[in-house]
Amino acid sequence: MTADRQHVRLPLILLGVVFFASHPGQAAEIADAEKLLLAGKYDDTAKLAADELAKPAPSEAWWVLKIRAEIARGKIDAAGQTLALARQQFPTDLGLLLVGYDLFHRTGQDQPAAELEKLIRERTPRTPAERIGVGRFLLARGTDAKEVLDKFYNPVAKAAAPPAPGVTAEPGSVAVAFATAELALGKNDRGFAADTLQKAPKDAARDPHFHYLLARAFAEDDRARATKAIADALAINPHHVESLLFQADHQLDGEKYADTLATLGRAMDVDPGEPRAWALRAVVAHLQNDAAGEAKARQTALTRWPANPEVEHLIGRKLSQDYRFTEGAAYQRQSLEKDRNYQPAKLQLCQDLLRLGQEAEGWKLASEVFTADGYNVVAHNLVTLRDHLASFRTLAGNGILLRMDAKEAELYCPRAMAVLTRARDTLGKKYGVKLDRAVTVEIFPRKQDFAVRTFGMPGADGFLGVCFGPVITANSPASQGKDPSNWEAVLWHEFCHTVTLHKSRNKMPRWLSEGISVYEEAQENPAWGQRLTPRYHEMITGDGLTPLSQLSSAFMNAKSALHVQFAYFESALAVEFLITKFKFEALTQVLDDLGAGLPINESLERRTGSPLAKLDADFAEFARGRAKAVAPEATWDKPELPADADSTAVRGWLDKHPKNFFGLVRLGQRLVREEKWSEAETTLKELQSLFPQYIGAGNAYESLAAVYRHGKDVAKEAAILEELAKYDADALTAFQRLAELAEANADWPTVARNARRMLAVNPLIAAPHRTLAKAAEQLKERDEALAGYRAALQFAPPDAADLHYRLAVLHDLKGERDKARREVLKALEDAPRLREAHKLLLKLTDVPAEKTP
Q1: What is the mean pLDDT of the chain?
Q2: For residues 748 and 784, is the Cβ–Cβ distance under 8 A?
Q3: Do 810 and 817 touch, CB atoms closer than 8 A?
Q4: Which residues are the signal sequence here (predicted)?
Q5: Residue 608: which H helix or E strand, with range?
Q6: Which residues contact 707 (CB under 8 A, 6 or more apart)?
Q7: N- to C-terminal Cα distance for the chain?
Q8: pLDDT higher than 80, residue 10
Q9: Other C-beta atoms within 10 Å of 165: how many?
């Protein structure tokens, strides 16, 4: 094997275009054969080509079509024999050289591949299709991507004018779109690939390869479009192996193992020796704890080419996607033992190691990949991020390595460390887990940095944090806009993943992992976690509930962001069901079973003593009971009224629909807008009583607070906002108002409590730091007061001198005279005439007052 092998498959669809354009006299016959090939009728294609080859002076195009059909059916030896016969007649034909090189390259036959490579390099491509074929060949050999684009692809694209309506596009214009998209996908630039394909001529959609590439481009960001694209590909060609493998890959992600094996079976019906199909079978066997089946499938995958680095890379990549990072990394190392320069394995190993906290080797591999391929988007992103992380501040202790932006660390690093330490102690004890290594936690102020560290690419909207086990990544409030989520709840949620992943050895389905973390949020703080919403109520009482035994599919097949959020809620409900009906010990026993390799549904039956069908039925009854218990008297019809209907109209509708939730929300909002305060209070109290957990738009709490504030009823305003705080940990405005009301009454404990609530939502604004410092000072909690005033100084306040003076006083009270002197001098530097600071300085320097000049 040559040291610089890049195992890149050349799509056979691109190789045939050369001849379609080169032999106009036979265009009709070749076109018919091409249609058979695109439709997946490979044996018919081979027979048609064989018939033509039996005639006098056949074109080399028929030889290529026969080889392509034989390769598609996995008849490698037959394809080699056909190639040998063809080259007796056309020893230097570029099309034959390219298809022959691909045949030898994908089966590890280095010597004949090298012979053909020499001949290919000696030829000068003349037609557009030849340029595309040679360009793809050069990419496979590691040629710079920009050079291939500039010299081979772009000239073809520029020369291929858009066809007139109703006119078939030039083959080169379709092929260059495919080739460019393949290049982009190879560099992990899915956006560019999608854009290229969407601009391709309409004729491209007749080819299953077009839809397959489109599915790859959308795979990470738009599952629905990717699924449709694969369906479109298979509608054209039910035997399209690339699309079948993509479909099986997607089914595997959804833990639909039976469906995965069935789809792989369809691919193997086409090519019984397809290495990737056998590799995916090895993954299924691994996830089902079938070590013998895994070994057999892996060995079968290597039958065609024992040194194929793609096999172990694919197995490892899929295991890592299932959070088996240790096992995945081991497979990547096996891949690299076969080809130390196989970049996909090196990049995947890099990401696995970074997720395992093995940063030194992980970052080194990122640099190696980027040096070898400067156009690899993931490698570029990682190297850039590594340099940015160098400016972060690190705090280590209590088995935790916390890494944050330096400015943010000044504001809330100790609080974050306290939350993480408490989570480590509380959850570790509860689940019987003693972590055997430090947990790395990284908090990013920029969403794109979080996404790159977590997924290798920008994007990842909707994620607040991700846990890989020993590594946690999280978005800071700075990355979340004007309404950030409670970061303490996020850290608690993610650290719970660390504990349960450790207990289960990273062998737990997503629904159970997420369900436990959401459940534990609410156990720690009832205002954390998720609440039942009217939409969730509709989904649970309707047909939106996923059976317990299929809950992982709720994440993988979610129709929208709302459905993803509902999957979290339902998973937590499922955990609550298991604990309520079968006790907490049953849940921990399931985690132990998973760690031992038992499948989740088998463990559930074992630990609950119930068959899956009964568990599904009992869970559905439990979930619907929970939903109905939240607002048992409410009705859920939506008012059929104009958007600008006044309170009289809404009330008239409500008279016919008493206890209607949506009607009460709408009437409460309208009465407040119309400033009918007394009527609004009555309606909003009824809404609160009907659905006390509702904190969405138009909720009773915020509207009642507005009513009481208008009436200057401070006690009632504070009481209703305190009720809101019990349900909503993100209610920053409510916390701030509660602190203001408490400060007016010198109720310092309440001021401090709400300042801490504010800090848990957004520590990147000055107000909560100043408020807490003032309250802590009054409560003689001097360390917290010191931290608050120091944080307040980070915002360059106009009264910095006063804050330094307060810091000096606090240090003096603690007997820290040197620190007090430094702070008082800073105060005087900003405000030389600050009398109180002069007096304190005299005291700190032991100058008698009577001798003061």
Answers
A1: 91
A2: no
A3: no
A4: 1-27
A5: helix 600-608
A6: 672, 677, 680, 681, 684
A7: 89
A8: no
A9: 6
* Pair of tokens at residue 737: 């108002």
pLDDT at 524 over 60: yes
pLDDT of residue 792: 95
Q: Express the helix, strand and coil content of the chain in percent, nearest 5 each.
A: 70, 5, 25
SS3 475: strand
Three-class DSSP category at 567? helix
Q: What is the pLDDT of residue 163?
A: 54
Give the Cα separation of 373 and 773 in Å (integer).
52
Site of tokens 């005033």:
789
Q: Is residue 371 part of a domain?
A: no
- Specify the amino acid at residue 588: T
Query: What is the DSSP secondary structure assignment for residue 200, as one 8-state letter?
Result: S
Determine contact, residues 552/514, Cβ cutoff 8 Å: no
Q: Is 40 helix (H, G, I), strand (E, B) or coil?
A: coil
Q: Is residue 818 part of a domain?
A: no
404 and 549 both lie in a single domain: yes
Closest CA to 740 of 726, 723, 761, 758: 758
Same domain, 624 and 664: no
**Do 616 and 654 have their domain in common?**
no
Tokens of 699: 């909720």
Q: 107 and 138 in contact (C-beta within 8 Å)? A: no
Transcribe 563-617 into DSSP letters. Answer: HHHHHHHHHHHHHHHHHHHHHHHHHHHHHHHHHTT--HHHHHHHHH---HHHHHH
Residue 241 C-beta-side C-alpha neighbours within 13 Å: 24
Rounded Cα distance, 464 and 486, in Å: 10
Say if residue 504 is in the same domain as residue 560. Answer: yes
Sign of the Cα pseudo-torsion (221, 224, 226, 229, in order): negative
Please tell me whether residue 402 adopts helix, strand or coil conformation: strand
**Last-in-domain residue among 126, 151, 168:** 126
Q: Is the dihedral of CA 220, 225, 226, 227 positive or negative?
A: positive
CATH code: domain of residue 692 = 1.25.40.10
Q: What is the pTM of this model?
A: 0.87
Residues 6+ apart with CB under 8 A from 818: none
Q: How far is it, in rounded angstroms, from Cα 714 to Cα 694?
A: 23
Q: Are 492 and 424 in contact (CB under 8 A)?
A: no
DSSP secondary structure, 169-182, as one string: PPHHHHHHHHHHHH
Q: Which domain holds residue 562?
A: 393-630
657: nearest Cα among 641, 678, 672: 641
Residue 116's pLDDT band (cuts 50, 70, 90): very high
H/E segment holding residue 467? strand 465-467
Q: Tokens 């036979």 belong to which residue?
A: 26
Long-range contacts of 603-608 (CB under 8 A, 24+ apart): 604/548, 604/549, 604/578, 607/582, 608/578, 608/581, 608/582
Q: Are residues 540 and 655 in the same domain?
A: no
Query: Is 583 in the same domain as 619?
Result: yes
Q: What is the pLDDT of residues 739-752, one digit of tens each?
A: 999 999 999 999 99
- Let me know whether 618 and 694 are in one domain: no
Instruction: Point out which residues pair with 401 in neighbouring strands.
Output: 396, 440
Q: How far is Cα of residue 356 from the mean position of the Cα atoms in its chain? A: 17
* Beta partners for residue 635, in sequence order: 660
- Give the mean model confidence (pLDDT) for residues 439-450: 94
CA 443 to chain centre: 16
Q: What angle do the packed helices 94-106 and 128-140 form, to 10 degrees?
A: 30
Q: Are residues 30 and 115 in the same domain?
A: yes
User: What CATH number does the domain containing 497 carry?
Assistant: 1.10.390.10
Nearest to 547, CA basis, from 576, 515, 514, 571: 571
The Cα–Cα gap between 190 and 177 comes to 14
**Tokens linked to 215:** 């599915």
Only one residue has tokens 């062998």, namely: 507
Cα dihedral 20, 24, 25, 31, rounded to 10, equals 40
Q: Which of 630, 648, 670 is the last residue of a domain?
A: 630
- Rounded to an integer, the average pLDDT of 791-815 is 94
Provide the number of structural domains found in the chain: 3
pLDDT in tens, 542-590: 989 999 999 988 887 778 889 999 999 999 999 999 999 999 999 999 9
